[in-house]
Fold each of these.
Amino acid sequence: TQSTWGPDRIFDSMVLLSHEVVRRMAIGAVFKDNQKPINSMSFAFDGTMLVTASDDHSIHLYNARTAVEDKVVLCQDQGTSLIRFTHAQNTVITATNAPSSEHTIRYLSLYDNRYLRFFTGHTGRITSLAMSPIDDTFLSASLDHTVRFWDLRSSQCSSVLPCPKNYVISAFDPLGLIFAVVSSPQIIKLYDVRKAEAGPFDTFTLPEVKPAAEITGCKFSADGRHMVLTSRTGSIFLVDAFHGNLVHTWKVSWSGVTPLEASISPDAAYVSAGSHQGDITVWDKVSGETVATWSGHTQPTACVQWNPKLCSVAAACSQLSMWCLPPE
């Protein structure tokens, strides 16, 4: 670990974000623990821990407050991707990413490196995992053109939603009452968690989005008012989650294998994403203008996430960096 401001630096403040604050943020710590790119990461719901998964088949756990690595877990058998924290800080769900994998979702205890449960049923590569923000249920989407609803307490899938034959992703809203399914660049379907099998209660059409723009990521803002969609071509779309209209479109250079990720700040005011060159761009969610461009990575940076509780951002290529406000 290389810490810019010394080993005692603690990422523990949540300040009121502003353009000035965003422009002042800088790298506070860098971790060079991986031999290959980091393909996914997840903050704990309380923001105190960060977990990463890499193409080198390793999982790394970090204390997000002290910027210290806590544990390493090797997954040499099937690899690891799409890692997500559950509501316990020492357990995660993760998908396999080895070419010969059986498309299994694994429930893993990081405390003792033990699999607690396996979730099987998908017959194609898993494209998204989303943990409910309120309970132990989660969503998975796959190239087998289904979205599946699970509960950590059972290895049996509780419901299956068939989707059109496209790249499928899904995401929960911040209240855990609604989830979105994107199975076409131009169509978003919203489901009531309690009545998912009855079909979507609303469908949004985005005619401005080109059919060739394959959507590979979807997230809701913390206030539930917007969704941010990322595409394989580097186009990023901000969508009104209530009315379905396209609010902003941004473009970054992207040609990486790992799907590009965008992240909305905890106050729902800013949107951030990496790029093929490694730069991270921060946009004002209301005006759409570029607020800051953070430089520091020299490789394609797919993963960017705002800490949900602290004033910090994690970004990753094969290295992991933690961005925060420098000391006065």
Amino acid sequence: THGNEYTGIWCIKAIEKQRELFNANAEATHAPDTKVINVFKEYPSLSIDTLLANPKAYMANRRFIDTDMNREFSIKKLQRTTETCSEENDASCDSSQASLPYESIRAKEIESMFGTPKTGSTGGDDDANSDIVIDLHTTTANMGITLIFTEGDALMSAAAAYALHKCKTEYGYENVHILLLPKTEKNDRTHLPSVGKHDFTIEVGPTPQGVIRHDIVEQTEAALHSLLEFLHLSNMELENKTTGATVLDRLRSAFPNGVPCYQSAPAVGAKELHGKIQWPTLDDNPNFPAAMVHKSLQDRDYQPLRTGDPLFVGLDGAVIPYDGSYGDEVLLMFVNEGGYYYSSSGTGIG
């Protein structure tokens, strides 16, 4: 979705290389101690396609060209025109321009690729021509591997639990979490994966924007392969091609006390995917904070913040405490995320 989050782009280009090798009945060349998974060989029951969502931003090594694409997939945004856009209080809607922001146009194109599940004649999951849309993201925050989907989706709940367990027990990653987005009407969801029947996002960090780190790619692929394996095994069960314990039985055994997960706060602002503690911004630049994240919070994602704890530091050096606006104690996520410095993404801490 974001042009400067190179890890996901690397991963989809790797998948297309795997497709090329698979179709040619060839093997990848690699060191003997390295396990390279070809998703078309390992998960044959799945029909896998890739999409580079924002090619212009990718070529420019920018998060976006005009506005955050992951805020453009609500039905209201998908149906807007140049006339309605100019009436909105949105900096990306320039009344002097004859067209919509680039990401608005691209979002319309992408929704059409997926069968117009929101703007089609009936609208809804029956119109979606993709069962699951998986969005690959990175973050500058210390989020580890975070598996994100909309609350209430039983299939994605099981998929996330499977990926969580496999990433921890087989891949050996400790910093793995499940994050639930607040359940909202499908047509109101603004993020790209919502054009599928099921939405799933893999977020991995910390890593800088515009950088490809081998370890971050490996973590992303571990989560992705775990998710694809769950879906393939589920397909095999539906076709009665497996024996022994079902995937769900194995998950019940792995998580006898339930699956640990986090829930994000509901979005308040129109440009938010989830609730955020907003930092103030400068009058002359809505993308530049007027207060920075306090050092005691840096790299402490999924850790508690309590009313009265240091939150921000102003330009005058004054410490701004947390005021309890989201409750006496909250768990912070996306702490000092670089993408949230943009006003069109919604500024602040998730």
Amino acid sequence: MCIRDRCGADQIAIQRYMSTPSLESSQRTALVGGLLNAGMSVLLGFLGIGLFAYYHSPGHSDPYCLRPDRSEIHDCHKVVDSADQMLPYFFVSEFEGTGLPGAIVAAILGCTMSVYSSGLNAATTCTVVDILQNECGRLSKGDHGSGKDGHDSGKDGHDSGKDGHDSGKDGHDSGKDQIMSASRKVTGIFGILTMAVAVASTVVGRGLVELCVAALGLTGGPVLGTFMLGMLTTKTSGPAAEAGLAAGLVAMVYFAVGQGMCSDGDCSGFMVLGNMNEFMYCPVLTAITTAVGYGTSCCLRADHVPANLDDLTVWTKRPRTKLGNGSYLLAEEQELDADMMDPQQSNPSAES
């Protein structure tokens, strides 16, 4: 479920799919990305198992001072302070003088910069385009705007038309400058917030992997549930999807509070579910969002659902035929083309 969220509902992945030239290319990108993510998760799991087995084999001591049953070893000199430091410590201590530790640090830094830049770009795009530009109307869309009127009014004279066209070009450039300026400011704000979260994560007493999985599950679960409502159901309307998303966000806040309060697993009463495993956040929040959204849609009138759902759900997909150039042709379009090519219809004298 976590892999499905990252490859199917994550803004970074969606932007990549939208930049592909065809439907087939986006489907292939999603499939390859899902397989690579799943394979990488398996490899990282075996990497952790290998490190654990290595340091608990005869002749080695655990630098984290933990026994195989995860209980702490007393009278032990702890070399690392968290499990996040185990892999760097392994390369530094076991491959000293080989240059491999430097290569590992460079690889980690390069991977972090790649993921970090993609995340900042996705967050900035959502904020600037969806919120500031489309919802709030604070930014120009970068079109020719008032210059279009000047161009139209200049049809009577070449000089005035040229002036109107130049004015439209200036308006277009001004809109682009506004968007670029806002994007830089929003990117800087998100960068500062991300660094603050990174610094705060070092004092919460939780591993980096646990925090990342928890953050992805908490934020991605409600979004994935909303996507599944749109793809898998034909009854869900806009208000029902919003109700499901709201329920998912409320549950997200509940689990987020539990993540901070129940780090030692000693929560009870109302917060008894707060110490749930981090990997369960995404499937649980997805299920809550989907169930509430679908239940709400069953209680609403049918007129809240769009009348035309062609190609919007898995149940209303129209059959397509793949063409030689990689594009697809709808079945009704193919029948129409066949009728147009029918000699009985294209040539009135064919029967005689």
